[in-house]
Each structure stands twice: as structure tokens, then as C-alpha cells.
Amino acid sequence: MKMRPPTWLPWLGPVLAAGAGALAGEYWLGGGFWVVLFAALICGFAPIIGYRVWKRLHHRS
């Protein structure tokens, strides 16, 4: 039996984006605006993409 993806997983995106942006601004600010933006975008979309992949793999079997 495969586990279904949790329905709340995509909602972690904004929280992770804010956290990643804050950490990037605090520790990697040498890169400036673009480093913070890319970190927030990558970490914000990761749970959404992960949920979609997990859901697709779950439905495939």
C-alpha cells in the first residue's frame, strides 16, 4: 500500500519561501536581491512540485 500525499503539502510553499528568503537575506546577503529572490522561488515551489510528482506516482500504480 502506497501512502497518499498529504493535502497540506502545497501550502508549505509560501511558508518555506518566506523562511528561505529571510535566511538568504540574513546569511547570504552578499548576493543581494537576486539571491534572496531565487532562494525564495526555489524553496517556495519545491513543495508544490513535490506534491504533484508524488500524486502522479501514486495515481500511476
Q: Briefly, what is this?
A:
The chain is an all-alpha fold and 61 residues long. It has helices at 12-27, 33-60. It contains 2 helices and no strands.
> SSE order, as H and E?
HH
Number of distinct helices: 2
Strand content: under 5%
What structural class is derived from the secondary structure elements? mainly alpha
Low-confidence stretches: none
What is the residue-mean pLDDT, rounded to a whole number?
82
Question: How do the helices and strands line up, and which of them pair or pack?
Answer:
Blueprint: H1 12-27, H2 33-60
Transmembrane segments: 34-54
Protein name: DUF4175 domain-containing protein
Organism: Brevundimonas nasdae
Describe the structure.
With 61 residues, the chain is mainly alpha-helical. Helix 1 runs antiparallel to helix 2. This is DUF4175 domain-containing protein. Keywords: Membrane, Transmembrane, Transmembrane helix.
Provide keyphrases for this structure.
61 residues; mainly alpha; elongated; transmembrane helix; transmembrane; DUF4175 domain-containing protein; membrane
